[in-house]
Design goal:
The complex is a heterodimer. Chain A is mostly helical. Helices cover 67% and strands 0% of the residues of chain A. Chain A is built from four helices and no strands. The relative contact order of chain A is 0.11. Chain B has twelve helices and two strands, in the order ααββαααααααααα. Chain B is globular and about 55 Å long. The N and C termini of chain B lie far apart (51 Å). The chains are: A mainly alpha, B mainly alpha. At the A-B interface, α1, α2, α3 and α4 of A face α1, β1, β2, α3 and α4 of B.
Chain lengths: 67, 260
């Protein structure tokens, strides 16, 4: 099984909406059954509007591994 | 489904997204003798080596995002070099832009459904319209959608300019000749094209937001100020006109006022 990544979740949601637009309205049930891809989308949308800024704290965490 | 009641699925979502990641962390430890420490991304602890660390910091600097966010993207991209034939950093940059492009494209699809809802009826149209307005356009405790689009579009334009400068500098270094783009420059070009597409999609979103009466007078004044300050006639200006198209009456009246 392929690993579920952010990109796969977004591609899945994109395909679901595209298929609905093409007339397969029953695919809305896919979102009703499992809306986790919507959560991923909403998290990523926030980052599109405002890129999470670099920070000394995060940089130090990566540099030292001490999080 | 009520789009506003999805928060309870958060833990389920994280499980789905990150359930298999510890396997990767173990693999990273086994395949590297340069083990230096641990880092926590989205609640999971990972061991990282020097090379991984450097890729994370380079990605963070290249696309100007938080280092922990960058770590998540590099982690997701680890299998890509074998598929794309590019370095892990380049694969991570490509993935970063793909995330953004898909997010914006999803909104475009919702807008298409929302437009169809003007003439069609059915649960999917109700859903799309409600989700677009409540889940995308109106984000609680956040800036209104129109200025948010404008700020993001401005950021993208500055970013494209930076990449253009990078390509020009590389061409100058190449002695004025036009050699084929080196691998690294191809990724810069990919980013540039992706950003132009992102700019277009943001314009489509802003246009729809304005059409649904979410624009205010100040927004149009800002839009006009941006247009006045434009000194390049390129595809980005075209998308601006597209964004302004949503408000012909407002736009015309403001133009008339400003020309007095």
């Amino acid at each position: 099984m392929a690993e579920q990544t952010t990109l796969i979740a977004l591609q899945t949601l994109d395909r679901i909406f595209l298929s609905i637009l093409e007339g397969r309205h029953e695919n809305l049930d896919l979102l009703r059954d499992d809306g986790s891809v919507l959560d991923v989308f909403e998290e990523e949308l926030k980052k599109v509007w405002t890129r999470p800024a670099r920070s000394t704290e995060s940089r130090n965490a990566i540099n030292s591994g001490m999080v | 489904m009520d789009p506003s009641s999805k928060k309870h699925r958060k833990s389920e979502c994280n499980q789905l997204r990150y359930g298999l990641r510890p396997i990767r962390a173990i693999r990273a430890v086994l395949t590297s003798l340069l083990f230096i420490g641990k880092v926590t991304v989205n609640g999971e602890e990972y061991s990282i080596n020097d090379e991984f660390k450097q890729n994370v910091l380079n990605l963070s600097d290249e696309v100007e995002i938080n280092e922990i966010e960058a770590a998540a993207i590099v982690l997701d991209s680890q299998d890509d070099p074998g598929i794309l034939g590019r370095s892990l950093l380049e694969c991570s940059i490509i993935r970063f832009h793909q995330h953004r492009k898909y997010v914006l494209d999803i909104i475009r699809l919702l807008i298409d459904l929302d437009r169809e809802a003007e003439t069609e009826n059915g649960p999917v149209y109700d859903y799309a319209t409600q989700y677009l307005r409540e889940g995308v356009f109106a984000v609680k405790d956040s800036q209104r959608i129109v200025p948010r689009c404008m700020v993001a579009m401005k950021d993208v334009r500055a970013w494209i300019q930076k990449l253009n400068d990078k390509i020009t500098a590389a061409a100058v270094l190449a002695g004025g000749q036009t050699p084929e783009l080196a691998g690294e420059l191809e990724t810069v070009e990919f980013s540039r094209v992706s950003l132009i597409q992102q700019h277009e999609l943001m314009a489509i979103i802003m246009c729809r937001a304005i059409e649904t009466n979410l624009g205010q007078e100040d927004d149009f004044k800002s839009l006009l100020a941006e247009l006045k300050a434009t000194d390049k006639y390129d595809s980005l200006l075209g998308t601006f006109i597209l964004a302004a198209r949503g408000t012909p009456l407002w736009f015309a009246s403001l133009l008339a006022n400003t020309s007095k």
